[in-house]
Specification:
Distance between the termini of chain A: 44 Å
Number of domains of chain B: 1
Subcellular location (chain A): Nucleus
Oligomer: heterodimer
Pfam families (chain A): Tfb2, Tfb2_C
Radius of gyration of chain B: 17 Å
Helix content of chain A: 40-55%
Shape of chain A: globular
Main location (chain A): nucleus
Order of helices and strands of chain B: EHEEH
Strand content of chain A: 5-15%
Family (chain A): Belongs to the TFB2 family.
Strand order of the largest sheet of chain A: 9-10-12-11
Protein name (chain A): RNA polymerase II transcription factor B subunit 2
């Protein structure tokens, strides 16, 4: 069983339509959603409809799509609808179905593309003098340090010999710690050295790509605010916060922005964002600098350093003891793991972060300066899986961090980077553990007619939510029901 | 009017399915609907209990072999 960590799309899907209308008032939000959340075909639809003066008949949209791309079309439309970007009129007898972009989204996206309006949605660059020492290198180092502190805090909660008191003493601000605890990435336990222990969600979090990690943490924060705003203490509004985050994603790295141009409530968010390392605020100026963590929030490319380079950076922090013994810089973003067909594993690293992560799914035998060795065993993989790590996560982690030499040899011989035997065996070990797969959702039953069953089940299949069906019993199972309910309603009213 | 029932779809081998059916037969508090040979529809809140019970049941019957033993032990 794997614990899926919290993702932006899940969060957005739960928001009501009124929230979307508010969000889409900001051009930066509309642009961010357009850039990050939409599949390619959906982007094409939006671009095509953006400057249409009147609604488009649904039948005309079909001409844009290859006949065999019907499924892709339906999925694109489903995504657009769930994000409240388009509205489709219900089918009626006298009028064909029409599709149009929602007003706020259309207006905001147009203005984002044209650069029109004075909405300050993309931030106001500061006109004050800028300290020349604050350049991109500085900001990268600053953001990395902040983020690594958070990761170290989570990793150290694994306990064991990898955590040192030096690392435990540093760490992120108390507010961030509280957030990690509230988000159940770690939990308080008195039986560990640091007083906290990592949870399954925490493991999944660690193995995520940095961009996903940032969003996970930010969404935890939004939820925490949502909860406390019920008791009305913080004065923060999660909708405004979300739209501020989208705005941060559209700012330029290495540029100073004016804090005066921000609303009161957004200025109140700044200290927390500093704690996460998303922005940097120099002392005694009315400026803030977005870091790379912030500016890549809404780009789909993982421009941000991956976990591997995160490790590299961590290695770099300890470079004093690495370089002193003459180990080649295992850092820069190159991989460091060698894995052999006999399941032995060698990693050229002295980063406590990377060693702790390796120890999650491998049995480590020896540690040298600058290198650890161990092997993958059935027990070590099983243990990892019981933490909620999946075989695919392990495999992709190993592949992403494979040593340069492995990549080169594999490329020369035209073989995959990881030995296929090892990859297969990791998968088999997982299968052995997971004798059944589970999927939460809804079972549809008691149809009035065969025809109704056929129509609904084939619609479910088209929009990609159908998981199982039995024509004989007249039952089907779907992962989501909202669209089907709407479809059912529109069918009823059409009659 | 069709109804939608909330729950969890389980996909597994027929052998595992028969074990689950057996576990359910004690109290009938797990399965909502027996779908087919390899699918079951069960109550959402019983998943953790079911997993624990299944694990326990399999422990008694299932002894996999280590795929590889080599001379790693001496150090």
């Amino acid at each position: 069983m794997s614990v899926q960590s919290y993702q932006l799309s899940d969060y957005l899907e739960k928001l009501p339509g009124t929230t979307f209308r508010k969000l889409y008032q900001q051009p930066s939000t509309a642009l961010a959603i357009f850039r990050r959340m939409l599949p390619h075909l959906a982007k094409v639809f939006v671009q095509g409809m953006l400057y249409m003066p009147w609604p488009l008949p649904l039948s005309d949209l079909d001409k844009w799509v290859n006949p065999d791309g019907k499924m892709a079309r339906d999925r694109a439309l489903m995504t657009l609808r769930s994000l409240h970007i388009i509205t489709i009129t219900p089918p009626g007898k006298d009028k064909p179905q029409e599709i149009s972009l929602t007003t706020n989204f259309k207006k905001s996206l147009r203005s984002a593309f044209e650069g029109s309006g004075d909405h300050l949605s993309f931030g106001l660059p500061s006109t004050r003098p800028i300290d020349p020492s604050i350049n991109i290198t500085f900001l990268d180092r600053y953001a990395r340090k902040k983020w690594e502190d958070i990761l170290h805090y989570v990793v150290n909660s694994v306990g064991g010999e990898t955590s040192s008191s030096r690392l435990a003493a540093a760490g992120p601000k108390a507010s961030v710690k509280d957030l990690l605890i509230a988000g159940r990435l770690v939990e308080r336990r008195s039986d560990t050295k640091t007083g906290i222990a990592i949870t399954q969600a925490g493991f999944t979090f660690l193995l995520q790509e940095a961009n996903a990690q940032v969003w996970t943490l930010l969404l935890l924060w939004l939820e925490a605010v949502d909860r406390s705003s019920a008791s009305n203490t913080t004065g923060l509004d999660s909708v405004d916060m979300l739209s501020f985050l989208f705005m941060l994603g559209s700012l330029d790295l290495g540029r100073a922005y004016d804090t005066e141009a921000l609303t009161e409530s957004r200025r109140n968010m700044l200290p927390s964002l500093v704690d996460f390392g998303l922005i940097y605020i120099p002392r005694d100026t009315r400026q803030y600098f977005p870091t790379r963590l912030a500016t890549t929030l809404t780009s789909s490319a993982s421009a941000l350093r991956s976990v591997s380079s995160g490790f590299a950076a961590a290695t770099h922090n300890n470079s004093a003891d690495v370089t002193s013994i003459g180990t080649p810089e295992a850092s820069n973003s190159k991989g460091s793991i060698v894995i052999e067909t006999n399941y032995r594993l060698y990693a050229y690293t002295s980063s406590p972060l990377q060693i702790a992560v390796l120890a999650l799914f491998a049995t480590l035998h020896m540690r040298f300066p600058g290198m650890v060795s161990g092997r993958l065993t059935r027990d070590s993989i099983r243990r990892a899986i019981s933490y909620g790590i999946t075989a695919d996560q392990i495999i992709s982690y190993l592949a992403a961090h494979a040593h340069e030499q492995m990549v080169r040899t594999a490329a020369a011989l035209g073989r995959p980077v990881l030995p296929p035997t090892v990859v297969d065996q990791i998968r088999l070990w997982q299968l052995e553990n997971e004798r059944m797969s589970t999927q939460a959702g809804f079972l549809f039953k008691d149809f009035d007619s065969v025809e109704e069953y056929t129509a609904l089940s084939s619609y479910a299949e088209e929009i990609g939510v159908l998981e199982w069906k039995s024509d004989k019993k007249g039952l089907f199972f779907v992962s989501k029901y909202e669209q089907i309910r709407d479809y059912l309603k529109s069918r009823k009213s059409a009659k | 009017m069709p109804r939608a029932v909330r729950g969890v779809l389980i996909t597994c081998e027929p052998a595992i399915k028969s074990i689950i059916v057996h576990l359910d037969s004690e109290n009938h508090d797990i399965i909502i609907e027996d779908l087919d040979e390899t699918h079951l529809f069960v109550k959402e809140n019983m998943i953790q209990v079911l997993k624990a019970k299944l694990e326990e049941h399999l422990k008694e019957t299932y002894r996999p072999e280590e795929p590889l033993q080599d001379s790693d032990k001496e150090y």
